[in-house]
């Protein structure tokens, strides 16, 4: 299974480079609300919240637009997505996005753009 992870014992400095990279990759604009990675505060420290490929979004999709690919990554079929946003509502990490100005939802596809953008090397795409 391919997925984005936060490296153990890594220190995020909350620079938002990962959030910016994701937002710009999907929407061509820096907007934290449109990023499929979010920074959350935990025990006084910033930590990236990432998609763990749990599949809750796929189970909630009445249109059947979210399917797991051969690498274990849940992908949204933009042609089938109705834009209802139910998938974003059930995401336990709040990293699945249904932007108001987009007709479809977007989610992490473990592309690694955010990991490459991180100056602290906090993120990585792994095969499990």
What would you say this structure looks like, in words?
With 128 residues, the protein is of the alpha+beta class. It has 4 helices and 6 strands, in the order βαββαββααβ. The strands form 3 sheets. A two-stranded antiparallel ribbon has the order 1-6. Strands 2-3 form a two-stranded antiparallel sheet. Strands 4-5 form a two-stranded antiparallel sheet. Strand 2 (38-42) and strand 3 form a beta hairpin. The relative contact order is 0.29. The mean pLDDT is 96.
Helix content: 10-25%
State the strand order across the main sheet: 1-6
Average pLDDT, all residues: 96
Order of helices and strands: EHEEHEEHHE
The helix-and-strand class reads: alpha+beta
* Whole-angstrom Rg: 14 Å
- Unreliable segments (pLDDT under 50, ≥5 consecutive)? none
- Bulk shape: globular
Cα distance, first to last residue?
Answer: 5 Å
Largest sheet: 2 strands, antiparallel
Separate helix tally: 4
Number of strands: 6
Strand content: 15-25%
